[in-house]
Amino acid sequence: MPVSASDVISKIVLLFLVFIGVLGMFGKLRAPRIVRRAQDRLSSAKCPRCGKYTFGKSCDCKGRG
Prior knowledge:
The protein has one helix at 5-44. By secondary structure, it is mainly α.
């Protein structure tokens, strides 16, 4: 019972697609945490007084905003 090359290629493609689908499912489970972390970092990067994004340690408003 010889196996043709097209059978082998189709099995490889099918296994690849199943593997990518499983990775996608695990990625969807993990994605909400990643999005939440990014939002937390962005909100902490804003000045509490004026709302501008801070670059470095302090804001340019110096409490005037």
